[in-house]
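To the wet lab folks,

You asked to see what we're planning to order before we commit. Fair enough. Below is the target structure as tokens, and below that is the sequence we designed to fit it. If anything looks off to you, flag it before the synthesis order goes out.
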């Protein structure tokens, strides 16, 4: 799926922001993306859409950072954090499904899967 490689490979999630919440989410997103790059066809349309929105907000944050208006920066950071949560939800489901289906037969994938944020299928709620 070339679209995934373009969307996911264009830029990793931000992990060098002044906001530690953005950085923590970015680390989780990057782990998910690394796993999905192993099998790009595993990424759903909802995952790709969420990635596109996240990348738009990352660019917007880069554009507003350094300006004098902290409220603009804080608002964009909040939206970016929300977009990252969407990526973690949408792409996380795809990555965990890939891991459940194929990690037992592939050592490299198994190692990638071990570093993923929690599996939503394990959530009792």
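Sequence we intend to order:
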């Amino acid at each position: 799926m070339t679209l995934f490689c373009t969307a996911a490979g264009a830029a990793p999630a931000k992990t060098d922001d002044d906001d530690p919440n953005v950085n923590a989410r970015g680390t989780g997103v990057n782990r998910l993306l690394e796993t999905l790059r192993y099998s790009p066809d595993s990424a759903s349309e909802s995952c790709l859409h969420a990635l596109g929105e996240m990348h738009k907000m990352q660019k917007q944050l880069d554009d507003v950072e350094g300006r004098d208006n902290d409220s603009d920066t804080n608002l964009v950071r909040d939206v970016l954090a929300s977009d990252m949560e969407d990526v973690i939800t949408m792409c996380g489901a795809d990555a965990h499904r890939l891991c459940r289906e194929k990690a037992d037969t592939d050592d490299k994938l198994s190692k990638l899967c071990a570093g993923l944020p929690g599996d939503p299928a394990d959530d009792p709620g």
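Structural context that might help your review: Helices lie at 2-9, 20-38, 45-64, 70-102, 107-114. The CA atoms of residues 15 and 23 lie 4 Å apart.

Thanks,
Computational group
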